[in-house]
């Protein structure tokens, strides 16, 4: 574990090191005062003329950090125009997309509010504003909205009336859809973005981090393209980001940057209160894991309270080392199974029983992919519990032998 004093010792390519150095200049604790001359004389230890710019653009885009990288590279002496031009085009294309999505968030939130359905927006444009202060500095293609479970069916009908259609939500049997899942994706024909409607943040087998009525009590209002929308309170945001990234195995730099920026945005807020909340919600190790990754990769400083907790949990540094080794492996493919399964399993604070509960839930609990894989009538829905393990085996086996594109491969895609 490093504490803002240099890039982790994992073996990174020139392009990966340049990306990391760009991101370190966005970290207040990384000594950004020296970034103005970072492109001269290889002060980062990276020779600009040896960079494969196509690879850099693909890697930065697949990790959801292209806007942050462009913001730094455009000021570096010696970066060729042939590299800056496509970066600039992607940056402004992403910015235009983000503005449209942000405006759609205001429209959808207004429609829900008019029906008496409060909704908490998270990730997407609100996270860009909370963490970075600029809607242009994240990559996203969807809107994530949390409603209360009792209002999920009504919220789904509002989205349908607005032109969105669910992938698997059953309008005839909404109680079944709501009871068996925590979210569903709504798409609109001809629209490049989707709405992910949540009534819980996570499935029951990974129910860590902020949840319940307290999230609604602490929610704050934020202005997004002229519309006031609800979003997560700062501490809830930090814990949500830690849990969400852990659930997916911390597979991209965008998630690490978002977590670090949200943690820094708290400024002088009560850190012991955040640690206590993490402990109560079973997400302390996940919070510590994000902290170590931000320190190793982004040069973030670790507060003494968190440093002491990390020293007391050897699993955290071991997990971080594994994430860092795999971070850039097959950046344009799906994440390795070790990230998707082992990271969340080992990051659970509880003992073996809690981990077995997670594994069993993930293996047998149907989700949106299962309902979309095979369509069964409601009377046969219990069969999904038996079919899910076979679908997982098929999917993972196919991934081992087929070139399955990474869901982030498009430069303007969003981190999961």
Question: Short description, anyone?
Answer:
By secondary structure, this protein is an alpha/beta fold. The protein contains 18 helices and seven strands.
Describe this protein with a few key phrases.
single chain; alpha/beta; Beta Polymerase, domain 2; seven-stranded mixed β-sheet; 18 helices; 52% helix; disordered C terminus
Task: Give the secondary structure arrangement, pairings included.
Blueprint: H1 14-24, H2 53-62, H3 66-73, H4 81-114, E1 120-122, H5 124-132, E2 142-146, H6 152-161, E3 165-166, H7 174-180, E4 183-187, E5 194-198, H8 213-218, E6 220-224, E7 227-231, H9 234-247, H10 253-265, H11 271-280, H12 284-298, H13 304-311, H14 314-326, H15 337-347, H16 352-364, H17 368-373, H18 383-401
Parallel strand pairs: 1-7, 2-5
Antiparallel strand pairs: 1-2, 3-4, 4-5, 6-7
Mean pLDDT: 86
Query: What is the number of beta strands?
Result: 7
Domains (count)? 1
CATH class: Alpha Beta
Q: What Rg is obtained from the alpha carbons, in whole angstroms?
A: 21 Å
Q: What is the helix tally?
A: 18
First and last CA, distance: 26 Å
Please outline the major beta sheet: 7 strands, mixed
Low-confidence stretches: 29-34, 403-416
Strand content: 5-15%
Explain the overall architecture.
This protein has 416 residues and is an alpha/beta fold. The chain has a single domain (14-401), classed as Beta Polymerase, domain 2 (2-Layer Sandwich). Helices cover 52% and strands 7% of the residues. The chain has a seven-stranded mixed β-sheet with strand order 3-4-5-2-1-7-6. It starts with 13 loop residues before the first helix and ends in a 15-residue tail after the last helix. The relative contact order is 0.13. The model is unreliable at 29-34 and 403-416 (pLDDT under 50).
